[in-house]
Amino acid sequence: MTHQSHAYHMVKPSPWPLTGALSALLMTSGLAMWFHFHSMTLLMLGLLTNTLTMYQWWRDVTRESTYQGHHTPPVQKGLRYGMILFITSEVFFFAGFFWAFYHSSLAPTPQLGGHWPPTGITPLNPLEVPLLNTSVLLASGVSITWAHHSLMENNRNQMIQALLITILLGLYFTLLQASEYFESPFTISDGIYGSTFFVATGFHGLHVIIGSIFLTICFIRQLMFHFTSKHHFGFEAAAWYWHFVDVVWLFLYVSIYWWGS
Amino acid sequence: MLRNLLALRQIGQRTISTASRRHFKNKVPEKQKLFQEDDEIPLYLKGGVADALLYRATMILTVGTAYAIYELAVASFPKKQE
Hints:
The complex is a heterodimer.
Chain A: H1 16-37, H2 41-67, H3 73-106, H4 129-152, H5 156-183, H6 191-223, H7 233-259
Chain B: H1 2-17, H2 28-35, H3 49-76
């Protein structure tokens, strides 16, 4: 059936790049409609079509790899490079927000009272929920490593348990952070403090949610026997992403929560 | 004392080594057979009816909406009468 004489994966034509691009158009124009004309219809359509695209695109990748065997060692190597480059781009994304934070906090303007935190801002106590959040994410880093080692040692049930613990810890972090947002004495419109705080921690929270979804997909795939002890790159990619999310939090905690108070 | 500890570890390992007694059977070989069938059906439709429904829904929602916006844009600028 296959006639290629090389180990690379020549991907067959697919409709998902088109639907993905169109969904991006719908999402962006949807945002404009929401901001200026108070209608969320287009945005919701955009989010729905984006989700449909992502689901089917990645479902097809699983079909190409687990079911059709196209992910040979050189192909996997390319995927590793790809994931590393993507995470690197995310590092630069967050670097911008840290730059903004340090720019404003290292030399606070007279309008802010000449000090940081600015006048009128009561920062959150770094030793309360933020510290708990730190321990939750660090623990999840341990549990995901446990899951990986279990997987490599063919220990199916322990892998499932450890991955479940990781996902639950991620959920716990998200719930704790959501309650912090709700209870916070300052808002995003409270000057540059509010802007830097909520944009940086907000994007981080979004990444925790994305990472949790990625881990949940891996959990389902592990239940369905997709991963072997030698070949489980999807899980490794999720683990790398999760560690990245953890490291960003550590920087956030030390810079914004701790030093910034 | 150490022997008891080792015995405990052995019991723990014994329950772990058996596959989950719940409903998860390894269906990967069946799926491999299904998706490797030489039938010219594209990958994104090869899974069955659900694939086709999802594909159709996605295309209608994306292409349909983008086309609708295009027509709206055209309709927003009336043709000049000579």
